[in-house]
Design a protein that fits this description.
Blueprint: H1 2-5, H2 11-14, E1 20-28, E2 31-36, H3 42-57, H4 72-75, E3 83-88, H5 99-107, H6 109-113, E4 122-130, H7 131-138, H8 153-180, H9 189-221, H10 227-240, H11 245-254, H12 256-275, H13 297-303, E5 308-314, H14 316-321, H15 323-342, E6 348-354, E7 369-374, E8 377-380, H16 383-389, H17 393-403, H18 410-421, H19 427-438, H20 448-456, H21 463-474, E9 481-483, H22 484-498, H23 505-516, E10 523-525, H24 526-529
Helix pairs in contact: 8-9, 8-10, 8-11, 9-10, 12-15, 19-22, 22-23
Length: about 525
């Protein structure tokens, strides 16, 4: 021990900033390989990571430099597109380009290590020993007061949570960027700038925060500050630091309008993929289907004069105001797209006109619709509605073929179709009237018995029973007699339901009253209404 003392400087024991001395060094070399590939989805990344992990676990390298690369070449074909980087303390003779090359490079490490620092390699680990304990061994009286305090378990837990938050918030921003990147050419420049600035600011604040936390831990361990200083810093981090999860969620919420837009576009892309039998998660693979910027609709139609053109007009507010119509239009758009895919002889172009991106369009509807144009002219500004009320020429040809319609012209088929779909009357007035009459207990709902009473009116049967139910409709307040006004209300409701002229209804009601009533009070009883 006396011999050891002569190799030790007492200056270190008097330095209040020195706490430990080095008593051992581990020598060697570090070598690491990284594998990179850009994939479209997280599922593909997970699958490749699993395959690579399984491959890397098989070979082993011994200290002598022998490496087992058995079975590596069989699976190497999966990894041809990987970008491989290798770094470390040793300069290798070749640059690896495949997974097999990586293991061959690793097998050179022991021999290359012999050439570095007389075979010792680099300093990898240092074994430390407390100066306070060293002074006790040398029986040296230390004049400086050295304090090394342990940080409390609670504070260490808070620090771990803070580091985890920094990682999570960065991951949240990266996930956010993954959604944005495929559509970035279509998003507003100021919004893209906000995202870029957020990313830059996050990296800067992260570096400053970690440095501040590390410095404060050192000060606490040296007894220069109390732990409550760290507690204040951590509480402020949770509330205000841009690296916290709370701050990142706030940022994402502030930009939720554009996230909703991106999700809507990805949703449309998924519909299009499904029509082609592809079940992949869409992340902007169909960005080419968006209507081009700085182009008017009429200019686009003229440039593509020889094509059928279908334009799906979308906007966030239209989805929010009428979600049912939104999905109805998307389903039709994708079905049209599928039909075009199956019928290559028919030339068609499909584009999505996003009015949240293209704010100065020459054509702007007030809801989600599909425009259809051919030969440079817009045929309809609501293809869904038009497809319901008109027959396309291919539909007429299909009808002729299926039903052998040889003695009828196309115009006659179209006329029959218009007559078939034409609206007949307005049911709302009659439904309101009949509901009040059959809802006997005023519950606001119909029981099955009440429903069957109403339904029986529509069936052929006993005329006296049907007349009794009709009288009940007129006397739905439970009175024994009905007036011409009661009868008139029912007849007007029926006239609206049938879609017939109701101008003579009043005279008809008075005629019924005159024929059937026997008293002078201008009302008729059930027995008078149903004459024997």
């Amino acid at each position: 021990m006396a011999d050891l003392c002569q190799y030790f400087s007492s200056d270190a024991l008097e330095n209040q900033n020195a706490t430990h001395c080095v008593i051992g060094i581990t020598w060697g070399a570090n070598v690491a390989a990284t594998f990179e590939e850009i994939l479209a989805t997280s599922e593909e990344a997970t699958e490749l990571q699993g395959q690579l992990s399984a491959c890397l676990k098989k070979p082993t390298i011994s200290v002598s430099g022998d490496a087992s690369v058995k079975n590596v070449d069989q699976s190497d074909s999966k990894f041809h597109s990987l970008k491989i980087n290798i770094s470390g303390d040793i300069k290798l003779s070749t640059v690896p380009r495949t997974v097999e090359d990586v293991f061959k490079a690793f097998s050179e490490v022991p021999s290359k290590l012999n050439e570095l620092n007389d075979g010792k390699g680099q300093q990898l680990e240092f074994e430390l020993y407390p100066l306070k304990r060293m002074a006790q061994i040398f029986k040296y009286e230390i004049s400086v007061q050295r304090v090394i305090k342990d940080v409390s378990i609670y504070l260490m837990s808070r620090l771990e949570d803070t580091f985890e938050q920094i990682i999570r918030s960065k991951r949240m921003l990266n996930d956010f960027l993954d959604k944005v990147t495929p559509w970035q050419d279509w998003l507003a420049p100021d919004w893209i700038d906000a995202i870029t600035n957020k990313q830059t600011n996050l990296n800067r604040v992260q570096t400053d925060t970690l440095h501040q936390l590390g410095t404060l831990v050192e000060q606490i361990r040296r007894g220069e500050v109390e732990e409550n200083k760290m507690t204040e810093l951590l509480e402020n981090f949770d509330k205000n630091n841009p690296c916290s999860v709370v701050s990142m969620r706030r940022f994402l919420e502030e930009n939720s309008r554009n996230i909703i837009k991106i999700e809507a576009l990805n949703e449309i892309c998924r519909f299009l993929l499904e029509t082609r039998g592809e079940n992949k998660q869409s992340t902007g693979g169909y960005s080419g289907i968006l209507f081009p910027k700085n182009t008017s609709i009429h200019s686009f139609l003229n440039k593509n004069h020889d094509y059928d053109i279908y334009l799906l007009h979308i906007s966030n507010k239209w989805k929010e105001s009428d979600e049912r119509n939104w999905y109805k239009q998307i389903r039709l758009f994708t079905n049209l797209y599928k039909s075009q895919e199956q019928n290559q002889a028919r030339k068609a172009i499909f584009r999505v006109v996003d009015h949240d991106f293209l704010v100065d369009m020459d054509e702007k509807p007030d809801k989600c619709v599909i425009y259809h144009a051919s030969r440079g002219v817009i045929n309809t500004k609501d293809y869904f509605y038009t497809s319901l009320v008109t027959l396309a020429q291919d539909q007429i040809r299909a009808l002729r073929t299926e039903h052998k319609l040889t003695n009828i012209t196309n115009k006659e088929i179209e006329a029959l179709h218009k007559k078939f779909i034409a609206a007949h009357g307005e049911p709302q007035h009659y439904c309101n009237y009949a509901f009040k009459a059959f809802d006997k207990n005023d519950s606001g709902t119909l029981t099955f018995d009440e429903y069957m009473s109403a339904y029986s009116l529509t069936l052929p049967g006993d005329i006296e029973h049907q007349l009794a139910l009709t009288f009940q409709l007129c006397a739905y307040h439970g009175q024994d007699k009905v007036s011409s006004e009661d009868l008139l209300q029912l007849m007007e409701a029926v006239a609206e339901l049938k879609g017939v002229d109701s101008s003579a209804i009043s005279l008809f009601a008075k005629t019924i009253m005159k024929i059937t009533k026997s008293e002078k009070d201008e009302k008729i009883t059930k027995e008078e209404f149903i004459p024997r």
